[in-house]
Fold this sequence. Notes:
Blueprint: H1 3-37, H2 43-55, H3 71-98, H4 101-117, E1 122-125, H5 129-140, E2 145-149, H6 152-161, E3 166-169, H7 175-180, E4 188-191, H8 196-209, E5 214-218, H9 225-231, E6 235-237, H10 239-252, H11 254-265, E7 271-276, E8 284-285, H12 286-289, E9 296-302, E10 309-310, E11 317-318, E12 323-328, H13 330-343
Parallel strand pairs: 1-2, 1-4, 2-3, 4-5, 5-6
Antiparallel strand pairs: 7-12, 8-11, 9-10, 9-12
Amino acid sequence: MHTADLNRSKVVRNLVIALVALQVVMLMGTLGYRFLGGDKYSWVDCFYMTFITIASIGFSEIVDVSHYEYGRLFTVFIAISGITMMGYVLSSFTAFMLESDLNLEWRRGKMRQKLAKMEGHYIVCGVGRVGGNIVNELTMTGRHCVLIDQDMQHIDNCLAKHPELLYLQGDATDNDILLAAGITKARGVFAVAQDDSQNLVISLSAKQLNPGLRVVARCHEVKNVEKTLRAGADEIVSPDFTGGLRLVSAMVRPQVVSFLDDMLKSEDNLRMEEIVIPLGFDSKQLSVINPVSRDFVVLAIRHNKADWVFNPHAEHTLHAGDVMMVMTTPQGRSRLEQLIQGVA
């Protein structure tokens, strides 16, 4: 049971306890007034007397207890107990309403409003262990994302670290869910559900709804790679295959692996990033957008899928569509993109 269910069950339990306690006070009052008033007063009179005492309505006494030594003290006891229980019931009922479907629908409405305004974001379909790491990386590098998962516990695990994230609980293979997540304005989709067939369908649906976005899919079985690519995935990642390569690297090139690990753990969020030179960019030398700076280091440049030019010199000419490989922080990436836009 996830956190929301636990909170809701606690509220319901408190409300039930409050109602039972109020009924006990009502029963005690009715029996007490019946005992004090005798057969002269009906059960309805005794119940009504208890009710107006608890509700503090202020009508005249239906059951006259003035000739009993402790009659009015009993009325005081019922009034204090009843008013206390009534307040407990009202507070529990208010908490119940806040945790009910009414509040849930209100929160969903606010979520839909925020989702409708998003663009250029990433959609993570499946936020288990792999998806959770994807969300952490996107958030740490300043990229907006939307979570989709059928298991609310998975979503809660991500929200515990990043409470500001937007999410949808549902099936990511459903077109309506993808549309609600803003897929028509998204930059990319991560199909990282547990099952290969789900990732295949997510890739297919995503490309049909927005042919221009990039889809990266997770694939366990090698036999499913070609099918998923044909379905629309732009890139396939196999955790088993990647893990094998990482193990080899840890053995034969440990210092490289150590450097990359330290880079990912850096408090500055240092990363390897790729920057695409936008259309409309007039050919300029690299020195124009690469002044002496500690924000980023240009490692390589690629033009029209040709070979990479490593460690390019300052006179290297940049063209629209070129891809720059840089080492930088999220702030450095943003600054470099601004410099390119300014030159363009």
